[in-house]
Amino acid sequence: MRVRIRLHRSWTPSRRVAEDRALALLAAWMMTPLAALAGAVGLWCLAARLNWAGHFVVASGIFSHWLTWLMLAAGLQVFASLLSRYGKGGEVMP
């Protein structure tokens, strides 16, 4: 006696790709303001080092350096750009 179990496939590959692209667009949309915020904190840290602004919040550690914040901002913006390109259906790598 044979028993066949049929499973309903609710996830088709095209539907999953469409959902992944929508999530990529959402993540890219959220990363752009975070990159701007990290850039503003980096400029504040640089201004505090040059005595143009008040005391910077982080006194020691890796996040007390202005270059760390600006590199974080640039990295977030590049990653947001790649996610946006993927979400719109374009090529990610040339």
Short description, anyone?
By secondary structure, the chain is mainly α. It has helices spanning 13-49, 66-87.
Describe, in plain words, how this protein is organized in 3D.
- This protein is mainly alpha-helical.
- The protein has a domain at 34-94.
- It contains two helices and no strands.
- It has helices at residues 13-49, 66-87.
- The chain is elongated, with a radius of gyration of 22 Å.
Q: Overall mean pLDDT score?
A: 86
**Gyration radius over CA:** 22 Å
Distance between the termini: 55 Å
Largest sheet: none
Given the structure, what is the number of helices?
Answer: 2
Oligomerization status of the protein chains: single chain
Name the helicity range: 55-70%
Structural class: mainly alpha
Strand content: under 5%
The tally of beta strands, per DSSP, is 0
Q: How do the helices and strands follow one another from N- to C-terminus?
A: HH
Unreliable runs, pLDDT <50, ≥5 residues?
Answer: none
Shape: elongated
Please supply descriptive tags for the structure shown above.
single chain; 94 residues; mainly alpha; 2 helices; 63% helix
